[in-house]
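pinning this so it doesn't scroll away 📌
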Amino acid sequence: MAKLGELYRKLTKSDIMILEYMVSIIGKYEYIPVENFMRKFRKIWNQKEIVARIKKLNELGLIQKHANVEAYRLKSIGLDCVAIYMLVNNNIIKALGDPIGVGKESIIFNGLTPDGNIVAIKFYKIGRRSFRHVVKVRPYTTHIENDSWLIRSILAGKREKEALTVLNKCHIIGIPRLYGHALHTIVIEFIDGINLYKVYRIDNPLEIFNQIIDVVRNSYKCAKIIHGDLSEYNIMVQFDDVVKSYIIDWPQYVLANDPQAPDVLKKDIVQLARFFNRRFKLDIHPDRILENILT
């Protein structure tokens, strides 16, 4: 399979225009009839040129032809290319590197900003295989009536951008810096660390736990936001001269004024305490921590 960056470099502005059109009507069709492309672009290109561009995108694997009729649907990698174009065009990134992490709902690449800063570029990939998890921890997707996993991914990216924007305004230590956003994609600072679930030995695990709780507390009190799915899988630990902890993956956030907020906050703290108690043999009482945050 060709690398995403290599595929993107094969595209012209005209190719991007086709893909952008498909994004713009993503909620109306699963497969877009070829007649729609003809009507949309007839003032720019003739029929032969339109067909040639659609054929190219199909051969690159960015769109997919229906098995029985002349209609096409946008694939996830096609959405990726549109997002890259938007990020480059808005001077958020200038280069896309290699994948550095793959999860159930996203794939993360390294990249560079125009200023030369190393960043992490996360493309949400919410799909059928993760549907049970999506419904369980991402209730914001349940109002989507059609079966568009691309729309769910776009919504996840939008929500994480919203959360990080507010959190960054509060200058909370332990929250990654947001550089930008496009569709289902966010660009954040690169954290040279390791996911907490991969850590088995720490000199002072209670210190790490308290760092994370400080992020939870400050997010709640300053940004009025609760993570909503806090666990060892969305916490990163950076082992440098000073150990630092970061909370990542915020699209499932809940506002502090939500009626369910206390229960969500309690669930986050209980899950975190349970992990530290089990992994590092601590004796943390989540109820006391919850009371301290809420008062």
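📌 and the second one:
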Amino acid sequence: MSDSITANTGKAERHGILAGFDGSDVARDAAFWAAAEADTLGCPLVLARSYERPIKVGELTFTPVGLPPDDARAWWCRHSLQLLAERCRLDHPGLEVRTAIRAGHPGQVLNTLATELRADSVVLGTRGHGPIARLVLGSTAADLVHLLDRPVVVVRGTTSPGPVVLGLAGTETDGQAIDFAFDFAARHRSPLLAVHGHHHARGQDALDRVLSSWRVRYPAVEVRTELVGGRPADALVERSVGARLVVVGSHHHNAARRALRGSISHSMLYHACCPVAVVPAGQHRASRRAVHAVATGSPAGAGSAPRP
């Protein structure tokens, strides 16, 4: 068995980027980030906004204080999305921009739309207001990125022309995250810094083996690797200063396990100084031993058949 994970050599079909919007400035900045990314990918951009309907109890309807009537909220959501879409088209001539408005909880709306549209990724902003912002800033933020079966990009901090920082966990989740990071770095002509928390002496060799096929596939991407001690999340936060993007994998742990063991992706969502991409695990089971070599410092199952 090869000592490296195999890069996906097929060109994936692009379906589009879904960006959540709540009317705030930071959500607008996230939409602009998504528009620029969709433009480089040559795929459509879908701007989505959710609103909450009045609460109905029997024959009575209760509208929360400060909310306009249901039809007025829908009109305002549609109007604000149209203005944002026009700005995105102006900034990126030729970009296909669509809008979607749904009533309901923002998490459910985004999840449903992502599935219906087969979105390649979902983009959100931070420190906004309204239901989308409560989702990102509240306790359900980590749940969303761990539940969605596609990358979620949270645009926070500042976007700098620095490196793409890739956090490697040394598990089967790394394959898709590596794909995402190399593809992004290549399109934006950015260097890539792969960071892994490791205490084994053979860690550097194992890390080089894991990245070898991506280096072959993306020869123009300048790659540096770094093994760090202490908490990997702290190291990634520190290296997010001046970075263009931080990319981490998602283990899909449940909430209890994340609370007990912590989550690197959760830490990045709330503490990184630049946009963060959380990429769910792909079907890299045949390469599990090779990825595990980074965590153990041992050969990646040389001479043995991959597990099904």
